[in-house]
Amino acid sequence: MGWLQRWLGRSGVDVAQGAEVPPLPDRPDAVPVAAPGDAAEALPLAVDVPPGVDAGAVGVLVWEAVLGERGRSVGYRFFLSDAATLKVRGGARVRRFLDAMLVSQVAAVSPTWRQHRQIFLRLDAEALDPAALTRLGGAGVTLIVHIDANAAPAGEAMLAQLQAVRALGFRLLFEVADDSPWLASLATLADGLAVRIGSASPAHIEQTVAGLRQRYPGLPWCALDVPTQDDLALTRKIGCTLSTGAFVSERGAYLGGRFSPDGLRVASLLSKLRQGAEIREMAGVLKQDVALSYRLLRYVNAAAWGLTTPISSIEQAMLMLGRRPLYRWLMLLLLAGAPKAVLSEVRGEATLVRARFMELLGQTLSVSQRDELFVLGMLSLLDTVLQVPATRVLDTLPMSDTIRAALRDAPGDSPYAPYLTLARAWDAGDSAAVATACARLEMTVDTARSLHLQAFEWVLENGQ
After folding, report:
1. DSSP character string of 106-144
2. How far is CA 64 from CA 235, 278, 296, in A?
3. Separation of alpha carbons 77 and 81, rounded Å
4. What is the pLDDT along the chain (464 residues), one digit of tens a residue?
5. Could you tell me which residues come within 8 angstroms of residue 316 by beta carbon, excluding any fewer than 6 positions away?
6. Which of 124, 106, 134, 116 lies closest to 39 in space, CA to CA?
7. What does the DSSP 8-state code read for residue 178?
8. pTM of the predicted structure, to 2 decimals
């Protein structure tokens, strides 16, 4: 979680004074919130809707992290949550339509993504449209090219299309299931190969990859659709340098997990803050931890405060920050203290994205309510980052009754429950639940998608 440590101590963080403005607000150059209807106009379809296909039934735009060799996020693979099922049922025209929908929606992603992470898209080889792909810019985008059980060599038209796409700056990974004439005809254009984990038995996948490695040496490999963390062993065994799949968000039981001593100290401060303890008393506790004191002083003395005289007193720093922003800062510290594990960074990003997404969803609420939505979003995923049982998060950390009720899935007792329901449904790719939750919040799905993208961009930009 070193990236979050840098975030908490960076000197250029946008921080505003006063109790009415939460720390780390929108950057001046942030993407504006889309009004209902704007997103639909900004995302025209590249092809006509095929007969019998509902354009609204392709699902929501979701993504999963693509991890490199050291388990760090190198990018994100975007996809439409319900498109896979529709592709199986439909023909080439349906696949072309679905890929066009995906490209249209990803085209709305800010170019600043490429400064921090790669974008990965899995597209059908027969549906590639270089003209439509120009909207993505090429650089920073990797296309995972897939073809349905076609062993014939690629024709001149497909070869020309792939050459045009590569000339635009896209990287090409060819998805393979065996050694075929199709792959042989295109191997010189490949920047790497991809294999779906679970598409066949582990022994068959291992044998296939070994054979292709001998025939096409030097090409890196990417493992797709890795279902669980246990399956990561196979990806390492066959030499994949990139891995993506549901394993990234897999939730463990975390039996017996406990808060670290630093985490308990932060939890103690949070408790005192919730109980209304005096700043002097809390400053006395904080002074006992040199590292925490240093972080607070560095945070408050950030250049964005515009202070002429540096703050050197812990009490003064706490007063300058304010009680509510101090609570939020301590929550971020708790997240930064996560144990070092393979998925800590990507899960930390996911937690902050959800927190920021929920804060943005509450744009019509008061500042204090938006802050509570941010904290609720963090708490809803904190167990996955700290690797402690969710019940221990509830039992250990102080929180308002409305937040606690939402986490206990008691929707009637918390006005924040609809926001958490929408965030969970979006992360799960449940398009029906997303539509229902958006309707309850009187918000369009397009507006929610825009806010979700803004949340991710905010995390990526501020976390560097």
Report:
1. HTTS-GGGGGT-EEEEEEEGGG--HHHHGGG-STTEEEE
2. 17, 43, 33
3. 12
4. 554 555 555 433 333 222 222 233 332 333 333 333 333 334 444 467 777 777 777 889 999 999 997 778 899 999 998 887 777 666 778 888 888 889 988 988 877 777 788 999 999 888 788 888 888 887 889 999 987 656 688 889 889 999 999 999 999 999 998 888 888 898 999 999 999 998 788 899 999 999 999 999 999 999 999 998 888 888 989 999 999 998 888 776 665 667 777 777 788 788 788 778 888 888 888 887 777 787 888 877 764 556 677 788 888 888 888 887 888 888 887 777 766 766 778 888 898 899 999 999 999 999 889 988 998 998 899 888 888 888 888 888 888 889 989 998 766 778 999 999 999 999 999 999 999 999 999 999 999 999 999 998 888 876 65
5. none
6. 106
7. S
8. 0.81
**CA 393 to CA 372: how far, in whole Å?**
16
Which residue bears the tokens 């792959």? Answer: 183
Q: What are phi and psi of 148, to 5 degrees?
A: -85, 105
